[in-house]
From TrEMBL:
InterPro entries, A to Z: Methyltransf_11 (IPR013216), Methyltransf_Superfamily (IPR050508), SAM-dependent_MTases_sf (IPR029063)
Source species, domain of life: Bacteria
Source species of the chain: Paenibacillus typhae
Protein name (database record): Demethylmenaquinone methyltransferase / 2-methoxy-6-polyprenyl-1,4-benzoquinol methylase
Pfam family, one: Methyltransf_11
Ranges where the Methyltransferase type domain occurs: 45-139
SUPFAM superfamilies with a match to the protein in the record: S-adenosyl-L-methionine-dependent methyltransferases
Any one Gene Ontology BP term: methylation
UniProt GO molecular function: S-adenosylmethionine-dependent methyltransferase activity
Keywords: Methyltransferase, Transferase
Length: 199
């Protein structure tokens, strides 16, 4: 009997070999990296990194992070990422379980994967514990809320919960874990970002 988590890891492991990032995927990830305000020398924790669309965007924008750590539940996805970006640091881990890297990062990014997360409190707690003072946590998706709902309806997928949680839920969690400067955009893509105060 497998736990739900193992099943998710196995499911993504089985997809890893065929999971490629198209030019459009990379262009959308570039937009997100620009919104994040990441510059060369900054450190980035890429949560649920998959096969590496964010490092592809960084590379094409000519941004060299001081430290880049990719975290994913699927070690097969991380293997593909490492093959394409050998300099990347990777860690197979479940970000819905306690995760501590010390307050080491300027940015924590969760891109295109919020629909796979249900333990949002852990997500915010982990992000807060991984960020430096003044650090930014961003949840972004290449589709808007409405776009994602339409996409899921088209492929016949009926999610058990909202693929992108309500603004009020995200904002409340941000405040609970000490974040400020909340920004929410849901026009061409979805973006929720918040920052820790500068100590």
């Amino acid at each position: 009997m497998h736990s739900h988590k193992e099943t998710a890891a196995e499911q993504f492991d089985s997809l890893a070999a065929d999971w490629s990032n198209s030019g459009l995927d990379i262009a959308l990830a570039q937009k997100v990296v620009r919104m994040l305000g990441l510059e060369s020398g900054n450190s980035l924790l890429d949560v649920a990194s998959g096969t590496g669309v964010v490092p592809a965007a960084l590379k094409s924008l000519g941004i060299l992070p001081g430290r880049y750590l990719a975290v994913d539940i699927s070690s097969a996805m991380l293997a593909v990422l490492r093959r394409n970006y050998p300099e990347a640091e990777t860690k197979a881990a479940d970000f819905e379980e306690p995760f501590d890297e010390g307050h080491a990062f300027d940015f924590v990014l969760l891109y295109n994967s919020i629909p796979h997360f249900t333990r949002l409190d852990m997500l915010f707690a982990n992000a807060a514990s991984c960020l430096k003072s003044g650090g930014t946590f961003m949840i972004a998706h290449s589709r808007t809320r409405q776009g994602l709902r339409e996409h899921q309806a088209r492929i016949g997928y009926r999610p058990a919960h909202d693929p992108i949680p309500a603004d009020s839920i995200l904002a409340e969690l941000a405040v609970r874990y000490g974040f400020q400067q909340i920004i929410i955009q849901d026009e061409e893509l979805f973006r929720f970002s918040c920052s820790l105060p500068v100590l």
